[in-house]
Write a structure and sequence with these properties.
The protein is 31% helix and 26% strand. The chain has 263 residues and is α/β, with parallel strands linked by helices. The protein has a single domain, classed as Rossmann fold (3-Layer(aba) Sandwich), CATH 3.40.50.300. The chain is globular.
């Protein structure tokens, strides 16, 4: 392989594209990404599925600039943010300061934080300390922190994985609504097939370091789990992931047992 790939601004390529990846390779003890090609249009929501170890988080980290690619070309927007599994709030800073942490201060900072917190339903919590928040509230603060930066690319690394089922559904709806308003390009890394179908314009599956499926979701919104088109796509994606269902029970020991995103 050649020299490590550099992440370049996507303004150098097709301006309709927020992300363009060509022939990206990455290895650790073994090859993780093996010649990945991917494009994401401005305002497009892409969900990335794959078993643990398929390279999902590695690809996200490369797009975020947190990990260099070994080879290939990567173009991304200059304005991009990441929401991780954990909220990663600063415990010694109040909620509003966590929203604008790392940004320039001034009069506008407090107003910008308040506006972002209003958007995620936490306008009354700006003076709270992170330790007083529930898991779902803390993740809403993390989302506000990402959106206040007005990203052209929003990277979501299993942001609902640590939440209970009901909170997860509410956060899923919130993400969908906010992305529809702000229209960043979005890459969501997830293990949840239903989540991918509900939210995404396209669903991409990574298998053994390569994209094995890139499917546009043409179902009308809002999308209902269990509707005929939804169920058909659900089955197709499960099959692509090596999962099968027998009498309504999902049989996929290696996939279903995965509780965190691996490289």
């Amino acid at each position: 392989m050649g020299a490590p790939a550099e992440v370049a601004p996507s303004t150098d390529v097709d301006r309709r594209l927020a992300v363009q990846i060509r022939g990206v390779h990455k290895s650790f003890a073994r090859p993780v990404l093996d010649g990945v090609d991917l494009e994401i249009r401005s305002g497009e929501f892409v969900a990335l599925l794959g078993a643990s170890g398929s390279g999902k988080t590695t690809l996200l980290r490369i797009l975020a600039g947190l990990e260099p690619a070994d080879d290939g070309a990567v173009w991304v927007p200059p304005a991009r943010t990441v929401v991780f599994q954990e909220p990663r709030l600063v415990p010694s800073q109040k909620v509003w300061r966590n929203v604008v942490v790392g940004q320039k201060g001034g009069r506008g900072a407090r107003a910008a934080a308040r506006a972002a917190l209003d958007e995620v339903g936490l306008g009354e919590w700006e003076e709270a300390w992170p330790a007083t928040l529930s898991g779902g509230q803390a993740q809403r603060v993390a989302l506000a922190r990402a959106l206040v930066r007005e990203p052209q690319l929003l990277l979501l690394d299993e942001p609902f994985a640590a939440l209970d089922a009901l909170t997860r559904i509410k956060m899923r709806q919130l993400i969908g609504d906010l992305c529809a308003v702000h229209r960043p390009a979005v890459l969501l890394v997830t293990h949840d097939v239903d989540e991918a179908i509900v939210l995404a314009d396209r669903v991409v599956v990574l298998t053994d370091g390569r994209i094995s499926l890139d499917h546009r979701v043409d179902l009308p919104r809002p999308r209902a789990i269990g509707s005929p088109g939804f169920a058909e796509l659900h089955q197709r994606l499960l099959a692509e992931l090596g999962v099968r269902e027998v009498d309504g029970e999902t049989l996929a020991p290696s996939y279903a047992a995965a509780t965190s995103v691996a490289r």
